[in-house]
Specification:
- A hairpin with a 2-residue loop joins strand 9 and strand 10.
- By secondary structure, the protein is an alpha+beta fold.
- The protein binds flavin-adenine dinucleotide.
- The site of flavin-adenine dinucleotide has 31 residues, from strand 3, helix 3, strand 9 and strand 13.
- Flavin-adenine dinucleotide binds next to strand 3, helix 3, strand 9 and strand 13.
């Protein structure tokens, strides 16, 4: 298992933002993950699990903590009939392609979401009228002492970009079993191609970002509201509201966490003033006080 000290978090977030974390542990297997949890306990500082870091905004001051980073490891998977079991670190787009090749439908929506399987379960990631909770049958977790627990779909308490795991950090996701529908591999791949093309068309792909910054308020789209207040192109330092999709804040150079927070604050205040709607962040802001 790799162990790094004062590792810059901007190397581990898709926004390319975040100061150094005291200790980073990078387990390669489930056994090493259990070992990492024991080590984190011995270190005695707060600890935090990250996947691909595609939904995270990390403080410029960094974190006086231990981060256990799963991105790029724990990537085993297997197919049995209509089910696929995947470890928590497997990139979601890879999982979607494996399902398509096995002629299994249900994960087409996930093709362009750059998270890990574990992070996508926590966030109940979704797109194109579907979401993780529609295809999950069970989640294998461990608690902080490494004890194994299996939760069925209902026990995961999924909601819109929400789950039990978001509220209760004592569960660490190890692997996930998906229940899918048999389908035609070519048709599934075609649908995934359409979804990916639509993303390239609508989303800013040339600058680092963390996807949608705000959740959609009931019956509306955050992007539409932000566009309506004329925020596209608003800039704070090197953070900018995307000209292509108003719900994305892009890092056009050396944006800081403070830059992004200032833009978020300005957008929320203006949307509230002009529409009466309070936007809620979808991205997760990590700093020492909330670990
Ligand atoms: C270009 C772009 C497009 C995006 N499009 C979409 C989209 O269409 N739909 C959508 O829903 N999201 C989208 N996102 C956001 C993001 O990809 C998802 O929220 C994704 O599910 C986050 O996964 P992650 O592995 O990056 O999690 P991280 O950002 O690393 O972590 C998210 C949360 O999960 C927790 N976590 C991660 N792994 C584990 C684990 N194994 N056990 C316990 N907790 C864990 C972390 O502690 C944290 O609380 C997009 C992001 C980008 C950059």
């Amino acid at each position: 298992m790799k162990r790094k000290e004062q590792e810059p978090m901007h190397n581990h977030t898709t926004w390319r933002i975040g100061g150094p974390v005291d200790v980073m542990l990078q387990p390669e297997t489930i056994e090493e993950l259990q070992e990492a949890l024991r080590e984190a306990k011995t270190i005695g500082k707060p600890y935090y699990i990250i996947g691909a870091g595609s939904n995270l905004l990390v403080a410029d001051e960094g974190l006086r903590a231990t981060v256990i980073a799963l991105g790029g490891a724990l990537c085993k998977w297997s197919v049995s009939g209509n089910t696929i079991t995947a470890e928590a670190g497997l990139p979601l787009p890879v999982l979607a392609r494996k399902a398509a090749r096995a002629g299994l439908s249900g994960l087409e929506f996930a093709a362009g979401i750059p998270g890990s399987v574990g992070g996508a379960v926590v966030m109940n990631a979704g797109a194109y009228q579907s979401q993780m909770s529609n295809v999950i049958s069970e989640v294998l977790c461990c608690d902080q002492d490494g004890n194994l627990i299996t939760l069925d779909n209902e026990a995961c308490e999924f909601g819109y970009r929400n789950s039990r795991f978001k509220k209760d950090k004592s569960f660490i996701i190890l692997s996930v079993t998906f229940c899918l529908q048999p389908g035609d591999a070519e048709a599934i791949e075609k649908q995934m191609g359409h979804n990916t093309a639509a993303r390239i068309d609508k989303q800013p792909t040339s600058y680092p970002n963390a996807g949608s910054v705000f959740k959609n308020p009931h019956g509306d789209a955050a992007g539409r509201l932000i566009d309506q207040i004329g925020a596209k192109g608003w800039r704070q330092g090197d953070a900018m509201v995307s000209e292509k999709h108003a719900n994305f804040i892009v890092n056009v150079g050396q944006a800081t966490c403070a830059d992004v927070l200032a833009l978020i604050d300005r957008i929320k205040k203006t949307v509230l003033q002009e529409t009466g709607i309070t936007l809620e962040e979808e991205i997760l802001y990590l700093h020492d006080e909330n670990l």
